[in-house]
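Item description
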Amino acid sequence: MSNDKVLFTQALKAIARNEQMKSYIQQSNELYPLLLKAAKRFVTGEHRKEAIAAAKELISKGYLISLDYIGENTIDLEECRKAKNEYLHLMEEMSSLSMQQTVSLDLSHIGLSFDTETAHLQLHEIAKAAKLNGMTVMIGMEESSKTDEILTIYKKAAEQYNNIGITIQTHLFRSNKDIQNLKHLSGRIRIVKGAYQESSKFALPRSKELNDRYLHFVEQLIEANHPVSVATHDETLIKEMEHRGYFHHQNLEIEMLYGIRPDLLKALKSKGYNCKIYLPYGKDWYLYLCHRIAEYPENLYRSITEIIDPALTERSKEY
């Protein structure tokens, strides 16, 4: 990645965490609708019904889906409870439509930023409802400062519910040890490179070394016959995993984000592989949009095109 791209990525990740900037955009009658058009490249919409509609269409095409009511770093207890209740309503509606699929969440959206006990109790309630409805819950990973708390809550819940999975970020130096400590639990492990900006003391930059670590983690889990999700859009990585025969394992699924490389996922599904699409929805799309552009700066071109004329890029989102 060029120095200009590195600086651009760092700047985007910085403003993504700027609450003043976020608040300004949310209150702007001019900026909000424009940026929402850009966000709809990567989110299904602001409301549950839009996410359910997108999920129904993709399931009919043979994809697995994971629905996420996006949000994180929620510090108000009542808002945490509202987020938990939204997940309960989401799963109730999914069940009524026979969608025995996955819901994804960040623990800081349901109480971790308030206190760990709140997050645990609310996760317990969500996991219980998911279990009753034949669904799974995937916990996202956040900044490294939260990793210990997230893993502690996950392990405690996973001892009671076998339908909970966890995300591990390859770029963190600690992740190899974390995987070793998680393999005895039955929950699916979702492997990502890592989208958060971290100090070089704690994490690797994007590099061949990072890709090699990614492959090593996936191979470890396959050899242990552990359920694993490979969540990446990196075509080089995908080709290597396909070459090694990883995708033939029934416990492995390939996961991609909604709106990113649908052509690639469609081609993989046509080969009979297990393919999942992560479908986020909700009004807290600002941080998510910043991360998608920071992760792959060329997404900025698509976002601007969406603002100008969404119809121009609609065909490129076809699965």
Notes: The mean pLDDT is 88. The two ends are 29 Å apart (CA to CA).
